[in-house]
Amino acid sequence: MGSGGHDNGTNVTVSLASREVLAEFPYANIFVGWGGDAQGNNSSSSILMDGPKTAIARWERRLSSLFYICLGGISFGIALVAVLFLKSTKVK
């Protein structure tokens, strides 16, 4: 057994709880892929244990999903107010 507690020749899975982690609004850290001995851009990766290994989760800082949801809600609210205002100012 290796010093990390995994038998040589076995596969170990590394995984993320979330692909997006909120940072300071309006930003979030977005998972973009694995580095080191882990590969791919899925939220989990399998590593063959045949010696010491390193799994590096790579992240990018981007505008968060919450920002876009808020922006959509604000846009909808403005459009709704505009429609109601235009309806109320129609000449009868």
What is the element layout, followed by pairings?
Layout: E1 11-15, E2 20-22, E3 27-36, E4 44-48, E5 55-63, H1 65-88
Antiparallel strand pairs: 1-4, 2-3, 3-5
Mean pLDDT, rounded to whole units? 90
User: How many separate domains make up the residues?
Assistant: 1
Helix content: 25-40%
Tell me the total number of β-strands. 5
**N-to-C span:** 86 Å
**N-to-C SSE series?**
EEEEEH
> How would you sum up the major sheet?
3 strands, antiparallel
- Spatial shape: rod-shaped
Task: Return the structural class.
Answer: alpha+beta
Strand order in the largest sheet: 2-3-5
Low-confidence stretches: none
Radius of gyration: 24 Å
Strand content: 25-35%
By DSSP (H or I, 4+ residues per run), the number of helices equals: 1
How does this structure look, described?
With about 90 residues, this protein is an alpha+beta fold. The protein has one domain (about 10-90). Helix content is about 25%, strand content about 35%. It is built from one helix and five strands. The strands form two sheets. The chain has a three-stranded antiparallel beta sheet. It has a two-stranded antiparallel sheet with strand order 1-4. Strand 2 (about 20) and strand 3 (about 25-35) form a beta hairpin. It is rod-shaped. It starts with 10 loop residues before the first strand and ends with a helix.
